[in-house]
Design goal:
Elements (H helix, E strand, L loop, with lengths): L3 E2 L31 E5 L4 E7 L5 E8 L1 H4 L7 H23 L8 E7 L3 H18 L3 E5 H7 L16 E7 L4 E7 L2 E7 L5 H11 L6 H10 L22 H16 L17 H28 L4 E5 L6 H14 L2 E4 L10 H12 L2 E4 L18 E3 L2 H7 L2
Parallel strand pairs: 2-5, 5-6, 7-10, 10-11
Antiparallel strand pairs: 1-4, 2-3, 3-4, 7-8, 8-9, 12-13
Helix pairs in contact: 2-3, 4-10, 5-6, 5-7, 6-8, 7-8, 8-9
The structure holds 5'-O-[(R)-(carboxyoxy)(hydroxy)phosphoryl]adenosine (KG4) and zinc ion (ZN).
The site of zinc ion (ZN) has 6 residues, from helix 4.
Amino acid sequence: MVGYRSGRPQNTTMVRLTERGLKPPERYPVAPEHPLILGIETSCDDTACAVIDGAGRVLASVVSSQLAAHRPYGGVVPEIASREHLKNWPAVSAEALRVAGIELPDVDAVAATRGPGLVGSLLVGLSLGRGIARGLEVPFHGVHHIEGHLVSPFLDAELGAASVAPERFHGLVISGGHTSLLDVRDGQVSSMVETRDDAMGEVFDKVGKRLGLDYPQGPRVDELAEEGEPDPRPFSVARAKGELFFSFSGLKTQALRAIEQLERDGVLSGASAHGNGEDLPAATRDLLAGFRRTAVDQILDRLERSHSARPIDLLAVSGGVAANRLLRRELVSWADRSGVDLRLVPLIYSGDNAAMIAFAALERQRHGFVGDSEIAPASRLPFDKLPPEHAVLERNADRHQETP
Ligand code: KG4
Ligand code: ZN
């Protein structure tokens, strides 16, 4: 049986800081025609399909999780993932069309994740997307997964029009595979700060796995940390002198050593299969609270240093780890202190979903890209040339005339 997160998102967590004198978010114009974009996301272990309209309103966002299939293995098994995508797609897409109240021929453009991700999984979504686009004779966009996360904070959680991303903004994407501070200008993306080793979400998962928690461990580590008093002793923020970078592998090692110490002290049992971790002793919660505090402090440190070197006007924060409770609280106070316009991704769109993929395609169209001329799945895909060179730019001539 397929489990869905679908339909109508209930509450918004998007932070609108207009009361601090910052400009209110500009909404997408509700055009007389509402082109509909079908989004598909199958880069990892979620099968997702969404429909958005030309104002970036999410008419449907269905995510079918494969958690149950992968849980016995403690992580994602690529072969199982592609098979599950194929199995789940008919029900997921039918549900998305039903919730949106449309039929497939109503769709005006199709977007699917092109990479990075598991090649077999990407291939399923890409082939479906290209096939549908070809059949309907509508444009197709092969979207970079991070391009989707990057624009997701501009989606509205309450089914309203999306807000228009300014021509220049900064994006902080924190997920299981990425920890990146990005500079976006006129739809082109360049990287400012990258992780040199593990991604932040990956480290949360590995530390949780060492404690025997069920996959995915990140959200549960966050919950357990919420119940602890941060133990700062074993942890220190990775230093970065000169060129800025993120680094989380040292923090991971510190956490793993601290867990070993608890086991040696007899506080924690080594025979670990703790499920949701309810039985873990208070000292473990304190340890996780200290670990989480240090990870978040590193993000704040790099943001502060980037901001002092070159001021950040608007920061859009996204990716699975953007659901982290402490991170959200701390980012709000940092942005308050620093006069930064903060857009936190609505919780419903922080994890992988297809609404963000469809919306990235809409953003491409706003920048004049009409579709991709060449598409192949890519397990690795640099994003410093986004949208890719083979995306077709229709308005090139007009744009050059606009700028004197
Ligand atoms: O963006 P996402 O859904 O998939 C990737 O593109 O990687 O991010 C998933 C990652 C996982 O590592 C998961 O453990 C982590 O985000 N994550 C969290 C939280 N919720 C999800 N990490 C820390 N705290 C959370 N609340
Ligand atoms: Zn993701």
